[in-house]
Write a structure and sequence with these properties.
Layout (H helix, E strand, L loop, with lengths): L11 E6 L2 E5 L6 H6 L4 E5 L29
Antiparallel strand pairs: 1-2, 2-3
Length: 74
């Protein structure tokens, strides 16, 4: 089975506000996500923006592509 990976922009905007936005790739337009049974999203934070803590029933992996990250976990 051959898989072709193509870099695409997220096709759904889930939230857009003053501090940033949350974008996602839909499984209908990105069949590889459906095949792998995973989801994909991008959290874009503007300078001094922050993401509120939230509960999720699934694991998440985060990568900082540009800038810095500060965690307040104790």
């Amino acid at each position: 089975m051959e898989t072709k990976i193509v870099v695409e922009k997220a096709d759904k905007t889930l939230f857009e506000g003053d501090s940033g936005g949350l974008h996602a790739w839909s499984k209908s337009k990105t069949p590889l996500l459906c095949d792998l049974k995973v989801g994909a999203g991008k959290l874009l934070l503007h300078p001094f923006g922050f993401a509120l803590p939230h509960y999720s029933d699934s694991n998440k992996i985060c990568f900082v592509l540009e800038g810095t990250f500060t965690s307040w976990h104790t």
